């Protein structure tokens, strides 16, 4: 009997790990050291793990019980709040995906600059030109078919995990328990005259600040759900989400916590980026620095490939559901949405060229990307609650509530970025209205009111940004 074509379990797991492990993993230990000691950081990982698994189990639960909803996390929002809800979720996910790719271009060329000085810094003309070329090469690769692209991504994922495994092994061998426990809760460093105000934070504030750092690096755990329609079986998509998330938590926790057993928190925080490269170099010699820089290059390419696939798949699904124009959902002979890929690649190219004139556009894109994904996640939690309430499933209600609370914490901490995000949504509503008209569907009064309020907030955001009141950097 012929096996069903589609993404295998291994390819789905690789997509999750490949989507999440990017440049952030190589600096997360110093990011954490700047805001927390090992005790609060471990508690934060526990809380973050619970929050992320509430998302994973919510997605798996809905994937099993609402198998008729082929658009994944976007259709859940649609079931909860109608077509506009699906648009809000999908548009936010799409923004997060391709805007994040702008950062990948800069990070990649900066890492390459360690070997070829002409690309030093990652924001000069040669860097931007090469980054734009890579944008279109990856777009062409994905346009040739998702299955072939995902297989390449699996190979890349394996390669970029190797330097992290080497670092973990070296750190475990050099780990000193007395160093790790010397200031476990941050009491010593909080009472010292440290110049970094983050070193004076209470235990609660350290935990809260750590969660903010961790949320961003775990983005991508929903990949298998987004691509579930392309998986060989739905069970593969469910299992891949769990296994991929466990793998990510294991890697991130070890990479971020083990350095506390190598040196003091202030020493870790003072290391230049990429911290993992410099730490490994101090343990094994210069070859460790070279290995990690190669890992960074591979990691960025892997993430870039994954996040080239995801925005295109997002807009295809949204177009199929009538919340975007029909042209965004057209696929070629390889079942790849060419128009969506070209639109995303074009926007990425424009943003990359703006880096020649100012870093502001980069910061604007990056902060919006980080905030946008939270909209998609919290709407999953909302539908999990609604569905479970309708079917008298108490456990499901608690699971959804846990996810909503966790995402609210992240949203509150990012309120300025969320407010700025309304600008991107204001432009998106143009395509939403066109899509509804093409499918001969009218806007409801509730949708008009939501659009009007969002556009008003977008105008207010613009005024606040130009006057320096709204800080999104």
Account of the 3D structure:
- This protein has helices at about 10-20, 30-35, 40-65, 75-110, 125-145, 145-175, 175-180, 185-190, 205-215, 225, 235-255, 265-270, 275-285, 285-320, 340-355, 360-390, 395-415, 415-440, 445-465.
- The longest helix has about 40 residues, at about 75-110.
- It has a single domain, classed as Up-down Bundle (Amino acid/polyamine transporter I), CATH 1.20.1740.
- The chain is mostly helical and about 475 residues long.
Give the tags.
single chain; 473 residues; mainly alpha
Summarize the topology.
Blueprint: H1 9-20, H2 28-33, H3 38-65, H4 73-112, H5 125-143, H6 146-174, H7 177-181, H8 187-191, H9 203-217, H10 223-226, H11 234-257, H12 265-270, H13 275-284, H14 286-320, H15 338-354, H16 360-390, H17 394-413, H18 415-438, H19 445-466
Helix pairs in contact: 1-6, 1-11, 1-14, 3-9, 3-11, 3-16, 3-17, 4-5, 4-14, 4-15, 4-16, 4-18, 5-14, 5-15, 6-13, 6-14, 13-14, 14-15, 16-17, 16-18, 18-19
Count, helices:
19
Percent helix range: over 70%
Assembly level: single chain
Structural class determined from secondary elements: mainly alpha
Class, according to the CATH hierarchy?
A: Mainly Alpha
Distance between the termini: 55 Å
User: Would you list the SSEs in sequence order as H and E?
Assistant: HHHHHHHHHHHHHHHHHHH
Estimated share of beta-strand residues: under 5%
Count of beta strands: 0
Tell me which CATH architecture applies here.
Up-down Bundle
Number of domains: 1
Describe the main β-sheet briefly: none
Which regions are unreliable across 5 or more consecutive residues at pLDDT < 50?
191-197
CATH topology tier name: Amino acid/polyamine transporter I
The average pLDDT is: 83
Radius of gyration (CA) equals 22 Å
The CATH homologous superfamily is called: Amino acid/polyamine transporter I
Q: What is the general shape?
A: globular
